[in-house]
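Problem: given the chain below (1913 residues), write out its structure.
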Amino acid sequence: MADEGKNTTSSLSPSTGEEDKPSSPREQEGANEKPAEGAQADHSGVQESKTSLPKESPTAEEQEEDVEQVESDTESVDAEGDSEEQDNSEVPSEAQKRPEKVEKKISETFFYDYEDIYSRPFVTEDSGIPINLLTLKHSFGYDCTRSVNLLLMDSQTLMYIAGNQVVLLDLKTKSQSYLRSSSGGGIGFITAHPTKQYFAVGEKGKKPNLIIYDYPSLRPYRILRGGTEEAYVSGDFNDAGTLLASVGSSPDYMLTIWDWKEEKIVLRSKAFSQDVYKVTFSADNEEQLTTSGAGHIRFWKMALTFTGLKLQGALGRFGKTAVTDIIGYVELPDGKVISGTEWGNLLLWEGGLIKVELCRAEQKPCHSGPVSQLVLDEGELVTVGKDGFIRVWNFETIDAADSVDDTGLLEVEPMNELHVGRNVSLSFMSKVHDCGQPVWYAQDTNGAIWKLDLTFSNMTRDPECLYTFHSGRIEAMSVSPITYLLATTALDRSVRIYDFISNSQLSEIKFKQGGTALIWAPRVVNPKGGLIAVGFEDGVVRIIEVYDPKGLPVLAGQTNTENAEINLKQAFKPHVTAVTALAYEPNGDVLATGSKDKTVFFFAVEDEYEPIGFICVPGPVQALQWSPPSHVKSTLLILCENGFALQVPAPLPEEQDTVSTYQIKNLPTQYFHFYSIKSRIKLEEEIALREKRKQEKEKAKLEWIKQQQEMGKEIKEEEPEEEPEEEPLPPLYIPEEPSPILCGFYSAPGKFWLSLGGYDSGFLYHCEFSNDHQDDPENKKDEPFEVIPIEDTDDNPIHQISFCTSRLLMFCGMQNGALRVYPLQDKDLKVNTLKEYWSFNVHDNDYGQIQGICSSYDDRFLITCGGDGNIFTFNILSPEDVHKELKAKIPSPRSGLEKEKAAEDIEDPNAYNIEEVKQKKEYERVMKEAEEKKKKKREELIALRHEFLSLLQKNQELPKHMQLHREQYEMDHRIFEELNRQTAQRIQLVQKELAWEHEKHLIGLQKLQNQFRDSLEFDTVVVHAIQSNHQISTYRLLAMSEKYYQDKEHLSWKRTVLKQAWKQAEKREIIGETRHTHSDDRIFEGEAEKLKTSEVRKPTTHYIESKREQIRRIVEKSDKVKAKIMKRKAEWDELYKSKPSDDYENPKAVEDIREAQENMGYYKLKTATNYRVPEHKRMNTEKKMVQLTSLEVLIHKRKVNMNKEIMSLRDLKVSIIEKIKCLVQELKSIQTALDLSERLPLPLIPQLHPDEVPEKKFEYDSDILLKFKEEQEAKAKCQEQLEGSPSSLAFRHGFLRAPPIKEIDPMAQAAGAHLMKIASSVVTEQRKVFEIEKAEPTEMELEILKREKIKNLYLQKTLIKKINALVINFDAELRFLRHKKLKLDVQMKSADLRYITWYEELLILKSLEKHENFLQGHVDTLISEKEAMQSKLNSYLAQMENRKCEIVKLQEYEKALYDNFQASLGENNEFAHFLTKVLKKKIKCMEKKEVGREADEEDEKEEEKDEKSSLGIGEENSGSEDEVFDDSVCPKNCNEALFQNTIQLRQKRLDIEKALTEEKKVAANLRKKYNALAKQAKVVETSLDTAERELETFQWEKQQRLNDLYVVVPLKLHQVEYLVNGEMPSDFSQALVFTNQSLEYLQKRIGELRNEKIMQREIYKKAQEQHKQLVQDKKEMDIKIRRLEEKCSHLMMKKFGRLVDFEAVQAHSVNIRVEELEVQIMEKEYAHSQELKEWEERILDLRQQLMKLTKENTSKLQQLNRFCLEKQQLETKLDSLKNDLGVEFQGTRTTDIKEKARLESRLKHTARDTALLREEIHLLSRKDGCLREELALLSRKDGCLFLQPLSPQDSETPTETFPVLTSEMWLLKAGYESFTWANTALEPVLSKILKEVCLKDVFCYLLNILAAMAVLC
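Solution.
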């Protein structure tokens, strides 16, 4: 923080302390200066000693493999960082050689001076502000949310942290003393020395200090530096008190072990990568530490290794237990650690693992919430929980605890427990002895300090609450306007009253919700000063009053001893969400309340606060402030969080209409929407800074020039230096989300100051409301007109601003908890006035932002409250002794207060607010009026209905002829039509209103169906027999999921693909046939054309064909030779491939042996110890899932098939019932014609049972639904009476009734109609018969009746038999299917048993899958490594072979060189010895070295050294033999050429030897690499064997786990052949279950193996004999091959004189490519000649056409000439007729003559051009340049050239002509001469263009081509 450095005036480091004062005790001793005061007598003895180390602990090699080692080097250096000591710690070997250095120890009596180290306020230099402007008076709060903030030094002193102070509280006198932090950055932790003689304070800030204070003198004893970067979190002394462990916070989380008396770091290491909460030493082993924090616990050891003292940390592994934050733990004497969890259980750690998890009986947690602390006290374990319980456990039971089952839980009950109280959350306890008795003090997170007695005896005292405080952040604060009282509130639901003169809390009151805003009513509202308005988080505002209870009348027997009491006067709820601001109008008439619900409510301040109304604002309200009395008009400034500021006048109660709503709609409102300008300000500052730098640079340059001129030096004019490019200016930035407004205040009417957070912090903005009114305030962009920068507030904005009464001091509360005071000179804010300030860090710098700041009514005191829960009071420029005579006066109570009833409070957080109550009342009033109107209308309708009924009654009493018909009552039918229309509209409206509900219920029904019905593939359907009690039911089946049908879909997909492929193949065949036919036609046509052209081409192509045939024969011959060679080569390759190696084994034999080894021999049981699971029988999770899936699919398929059969049986029953109904109906019609005595009883019609048609349960209509609704309403009315009756009877009855007629099956309706027709026809016939019977029947009629009777009796009997047969057959079908289903049930049951077994196997496989995958992955990795190494080995072998070949070649080259030398010498050369020495002489080989490559030069130098040594040895050897000779001069009489040749050969020899040496080096390196890699390959192979054995062992263990499962095998008695003494045993554990097939196979296999054994012996004998014969044949063939090779070589040498490769000769005998190219040239030449002939013929044709067209054109010209003559004659006649006009036409005729002459001259030119064009055409035709015949013909017309199309198809308008300018012809002629050399490849392009465009376009195109070609050339 910026202020921290400024507030710090300590001498803790050389950089911040005074220069003449050393920063450490050692520097002070070395400087030989006097110590500071208070430490003068502390430098008596400087002792010399050596650092003692802890005892040796086991090294890292002795630890377990899974323990994480975290080592940190020993840092036995002091705070200054002695480099020599660091070297000693890092290099122990050198330290052992040197003598041990004697270290100076700090004197035991040395102390620092507290005045030199504590942080003081920061004051701007030369400001004149006194340093003691504010002095701390008292601290009321307590930061109870810290995990450990309670320390007992003795029975009288309690210590805790409050912001930047450590508070020492005297428990008897209640007085406080303070210790300031040295850095001003806050305090992280406090801990006490075991002797309580010292305590440590770990601070916060940049490079914070850890200070050890002496107690009780409170003098700083030691200062430890460099332990962490940002802040200390926790610390602990060891049991001996010699070492101190500390842990830092983010970012380093550094664990440091200190030799604190010497201010030295012993060890350090990073504790963890997340938050660490706690560090402690073990009480029994000082070499062990433990740290815990977010999601971890870590166990540390200090071990002395060969490299020095190390910290080794093992991270605790949770295993199956869920990871938890560990707040509390304790080390046990045997090294175990027991810790708490977030869910309340205890974890016992041993060896870095959880040994057991402890809980209470019935698996209840040890605490209902996190366990915050564990303590070992007098052999008992004490646990402290956030649930307010303290439990004591038996230590021996917990120490010996171990898990008893797989859950890992052990149930333990506490010996004793203490419940401290309700709403108590304990976080820490500290023990102290008072008068020999142990007393515990506990820290309550909910804001209290408790005194506890944990003796658990009869004399145990109850928990005593010593102090209570606010819990957490204090939300609001206010002081009394007339006395020294303070009121605060927080989210802990309390309001507290403090007396800050006597430093005591007077009273407290609790509510149901937390407080968020508070204001003390001004003196105008309450002259006694006892009224307070408090806003709460549920939107309620409560008016409370503080009074002195001593002022109330005392009743008999009672006494008022309390200092102050709080009474609730009134409660009202104006808002829905939290109230954030309260403000009284200066005259006290109006109270304004603001809330997060974006409303501001106004109340008239009277004895009872009455609501005036509310307004809506654009954002959540942050603050409210009324204009000061100095302003003319009273206005309210409303500040919103989202950047809006509003100004409204105070509303008048009498002007507001609050009948229907409290919302004030016409209140004049001014808006200010803040628009960020910070980016622009920064940009302007940057521009000004750059401009200033430029000016300074120019000024410096001018001064330098001036100095140079003064010194008399000449200044040369230099070119202006190029200025470096400036960085671009930053762009303007406007934050997307507006910066929040934190606070503000009025400066003048309509003007105000704002302090903002976020991006716009760092300034105070002076703003003004504008007069323009926009409809939408969101679109406004208002900018402040004045800005004041505030120093060091970019990241630390001002949260609260307050003024003293005189407004000469401005108090600012900062975000980092600092307090600033700005002195104001003229009560106004200006830039200069805010440059000087006084700053003091008071609250916690991380979370202690100041929430409230205010001064007392007389400006003597200042009070601040912060987010850290602390409340501080300060004296303003006055010492404390002046205030001793002051006293706070508590307001007296109102008269009659004791008689008043308690005010009604609003306890329900969901209660209606004032506006909602108003709206509810208005709604109830409107509904009541509507109901009254409805009631009146109903009464009128009832009266009219009675009157109408009486009229109807009178009408009925009249005679018939006098009665009126009902239609006559209808006065106007349009009335009923209108009523019907209105009714329909209302129904439609109701349907629309209920559409959402209708859709909602439909969707709900659909969801229920999807959840419960659609997932069913088959429901349970029970089919009953008709005559018996037999029944059969379907299987209730759920639909199979999609994954089970993927295989089937895959198959069906394959089928569809095959079908599509088949169809496509058919199409292809058809297309192929058509194409084939087309191709046949084309071939036929091509052949015909060939036949036509062959006759022409015969004489010319004969030679080409013969040449081609010759080449073809040569190629065939060559191909045959090559094929023969390749065939022979392939045969040899096959022979060599088929040649078996020496260790060759027949694969079939190997496979047979492997199969025999696996399957033959004795029958291995899976339970055997030597059983090895074969590869193909190994089971894993995936295979088992496939098995389960296939079994499930098979079961489902079988059940589905059975269900289908049962459903078809039900359908059969339905059809039988319909048939029986028809037959019974027919039988009834027949029996109507029979006498009663002759009628047989009608058979009963079978009915469908409800469970046979379960789908009918879900069929319903409106009647059923209405009935259901009525039943539900009835149940709701008499729910208590119907509790005993089953609730589902009505539901079942409603849903089981028969469907309505409209939903009956149409087949059944048709059958019923048919029966009705039959019945009606029979009845009509019977009626006719009865009518006839009335007369006397004749004999014939009697006979007919008799026959009819016999027929009816027969029909009756037949129908009954038919019905019985149907019933019997159905029952038989049902019994048969039932028997079939019983068999299937047995199969399904066995399948279910198998499924269960397989599922258990799957669970086992899943549990082992991870380990198996690990082993298999390890094996696969090793196999891949082995293969990679093998490939590398093979590559090395290949490279070695290549090197060997190169070495052999070089040796052969060397040998050939010597042979060449000997040959050059000849015989008996006298200089042979000399030249031989010259050749063999070893000389230094100079090489060119590359410049700039140091590595290469060094290598070459090394090589040269080696060569020098070797050459030196060689030269010595040579010199020892002969004398030194000069090889640079040719001796006399020696051949000069021979000498030079020898020199050249020597150079070649040296090159060969050098290359040979390099090759040998490379070969040696390759051999080394090969050997090293071979060793690695052996290691990998060994590891692979080990891994495979482990995998096999694991497979066997997995098989044993699977064998442990019980498998149900149902057997019949005849299948049991395991008998003991002829009886079936009771124990079948030794029996095996075999299938008969397997048993028969084993018995049969015995005989087969005997026969196979005899057969294999015979085969072996035959194979031995064959082997001998083959060996003999091989020897003979080798001899024969050698003989033939010698013969072939002899013949070759005899014929050719050398060995020749015949295959190469035969392969390269003919150059086929050359011959083919010659043939192609001939073909091209012939084709070109043919093409020339065609073009010549076309030119002739075109010439003839040109001639023809010319003749036509000539005739047309002649015709034109005739027309012209006729025209001339006509004109002369016309002239003669018009004599009087002849003069006028004279000029015209002269003009015609001139025109004619012009045309004639033009005609001559055109004729000449035509001749030239014909020459050009002739020239083009001779130079193979032809024009296409379809192009155009030139014609002569009116002296112009025209292009006429050849045919009408070539042009859309045949009569249209295209004029061509003659100049283009000349251009064509000029360009053609340069065009003739062009490539013939342009011909097809030109011909295509000439076809499609006119001649003019052709000319233009040719010109473009010529220009392009000219550029290309």
